[in-house]
Amino acid sequence: MIVKTLPVEQAVGRKISHDLTLIDPETGFKGARFRRGHVIAEGDVPLLRRMGKSNIPFLELAPDELHEDDAALLLGERMRGAGLELRGPEEGKCTLVAARDGLLLFSDEDIDFINDDPDWLFTTRPNKTPVTKGMAAAAFRIGPLSMERDRVDRARKASPLSVLPWASLPAALVTTGREIYEGTVRDAFLPKLLKKLDVYGAPFLGQTLCPDDRDSILGAASAWIEKGARVIICTGGMSVDADDMTPGAIESMCDDVVFRRIPVIPGANLMLARRGNAFVLGVPASAVFFGRTSLDMVLDRLYAGIPPSGAEVRRWGKGGLCRNCVSCSYPGCAFSARS
Questions:
Q1: 198-219 burial: b if 16+ Cβ within 10 Å, else e
Q2: Domains of the chain
Q3: I want to staple 81 with a disulfide (CB 3.0 to 4.6 A). Which of 160, 167, 303, 326 is the partner?
């Protein structure tokens, strides 16, 4: 690439080679004030000077080189998977925006592969975390104004990102505890669960109250599976006290236990098991008292169709301690990022 620089007054009548950025602290504007291809006019000179542009660069690219805009576009076309839209370039940067609500999914190794080239700058939201329609999921550009085509082709070997849509899995709640079953204490979890399920658009089939009895819990959960529930949430009785029967009931009715505990706080006593195509969760009391727990992470994965394995959740301890922020920003926080 050859760069020829002209004083701004002598650049009048020439086409700008790349977007020129205006940063105006008074109005809060930051963006491309003059776009690539704009022909500089006499009236532009005062503003260009105010932008700090005393000299304007003009680029001459070699046959094997690509402009920053074209490099970003080519990579963006490759990295745009299902559920994403490509926007840009502006100021050399392209953005992948969620076209639907769901779970962002990509290969950590492939993002690292792109960024192994120090002139590529590829950033994302955390992997396997929820995004909503219209939210930026990734943004990327090259650092210099041009790049050799073979380096762009190398980056394009990475696999695309995608947004997995939420599956409409019917859910049911089995609430355990003699104090709730006999009406001494009101169940406080149901309203919280309904709010969580609303995010996924999941139908709620109903709730069964059970005493601290293994056969009652087993029978209630099995009955909901027969009625079409794909996610059965059993609350209460998940500790190690003599009255805590829920883990044994879940284990005896399911084909396999994915995990019995999870290194995430709050919610360490969360249990996940399978029976056919249904999932049964044993949810500890922390889900009643805390706004976000390990349950939220696992529900995100179940409703996106990529349930975590037992081996995977053993790696969730790093960053798995919630800060209990006064104003909760989940899933826009490190606690949600359990990839």
A1: ebbebebbebbbbbbbbebbbb
A2: 2-60 (3.90.105.10), 65-163 (3.90.1170), 171-336 (3.40.980.10)
A3: 160
